[in-house]
């Protein structure tokens, strides 16, 4: 959406503006992504305006999360992944995603998706991942963006992916243990670097990073998922990798970073709009389980 002024609800306009201050929509990769206001629900005029406006954060807007939202009665869901990705030719109850959208619209709950704007932003999800595996910028001699986003005033240095150079090379297993602790995971999937090679350079991409990381000359790839052939190609090049399933490289960012930042921005609007409360979904989960 090009301008928040066309949004009818003042509360929705405030939340969208706050999200865009943190993660400008111009940073998103519009060649394939579908970010922005995906559902503008009509206000429920039959209900009193709440004293506290809730904003629900989730990675995926599943049926379970939609039901959670209907119970919590937030004004807006900020869903990292866009629930509407390809053009819709109809909206029916036969499709669970469309059913969720219809129910949310009926309940007056709007949906906004920032997705790759969060990936590209300075201090966004990729910087969060970089901090997690390196131990923080104090442990690094350099950090660069892989694919820079240019011509966005005020966002110089933003872009997709990160390459971190450590001050001191680290054992592969040390970094594996660090990732597991940082992301709260019992298991991750790995491809060991050859000959117990120590790791100095790490390429990082939240979610599915195979195509971005394909030809980068580093010691280690850290991403959510690689395809079979992408993993084989990394092994053939002598590059180690740590993968954690797609959304496990994203979900903790909502709790650790985005909730606090969005709460702080919305505090500035409290006098005009009433109080805002940002909550993280308890029903948003990775679809995979390891047994």
Automatic annotation (TrEMBL):
One GO molecular-function entry: hydrolase activity
Top-level taxon in the UniProt lineage: Eukaryota
Name recorded for this polypeptide: GTP cyclohydrolase 1 type 2/Nif3
This protein's UniProt keywords: Hydrolase, Metal-binding
NCBIfam families: YbgI_SA1388 (TIGR00486)
Residues annotated for a divalent metal cation binding in this entry: 81, 119, 246, 250
Family, similarity comment: Belongs to the GTP cyclohydrolase I type 2/NIF3 family.
Species this chain originates from: Tuber borchii
Keyword Nucleus: no
Entry keyword Hydrolase: yes
Pfam families: DUF34_NIF3
Gene3D superfamilies linked to this entry: NIF3 (NGG1p interacting factor 3)-like
Any GO CC annotation of this UniProt entry: mitochondrion
């Amino acid at each position: 959406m090009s301008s928040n002024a066309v949004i009818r609800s003042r509360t929705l306009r405030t939340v969208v503006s706050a999200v865009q201050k943190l993660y400008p929509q111009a940073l998103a990769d519009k060649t394939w992504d579908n970010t922005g206001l995906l559902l503008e629900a009509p206000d429920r005029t039959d209900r009193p305006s709440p004293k506290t406006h809730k904003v629900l954060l989730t990675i995926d807007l599943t049926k379970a999360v939609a039901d959670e939202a209907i119970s919590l009665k937030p004004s807006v869901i900020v869903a990292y992944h866009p629930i509407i990705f390809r053009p819709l030719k109809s909206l029916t109850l036969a499709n669970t995603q469309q059913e969720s959208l219809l129910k949310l619209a009926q309940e007056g709950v709007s949906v906004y998706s920032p997705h790759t704007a969060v990936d590209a932003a300075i201090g966004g999800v990729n910087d969060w991942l970089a901090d997690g595996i390196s131990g923080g910028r104090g442990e690094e001699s350099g950090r660069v963006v892989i694919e820079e986003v240019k011509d966005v005033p005020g966002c110089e240095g933003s872009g997709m992916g990160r390459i971190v150079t450590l001050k001191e090379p680290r054992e592969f297993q040390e970094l594996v243990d660090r990732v597991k602790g940082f992301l709260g995971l019992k298991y991750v999937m790995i491809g060991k670097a050859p000959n117990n090679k120590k790791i100095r350079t790490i390429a990082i991409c939240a979610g599915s990073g195979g195509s971005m990381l394909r030809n980068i000359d580093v010691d280690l790839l850290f991403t959510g998922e690689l395809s079979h052939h992408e993993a084989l190609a990394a092994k053939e090049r002598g590059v180690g990798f740590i993968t954690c399933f797609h959304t496990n490289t994203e979900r903790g960012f909502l709790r650790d970073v985005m909730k606090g930042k969005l709460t702080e921005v919305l505090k500035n609007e409290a006098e005009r709009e009433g109080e805002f409360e940002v909550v993280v979904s308890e029903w948003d989960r990775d679809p995979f389980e390891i047994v």
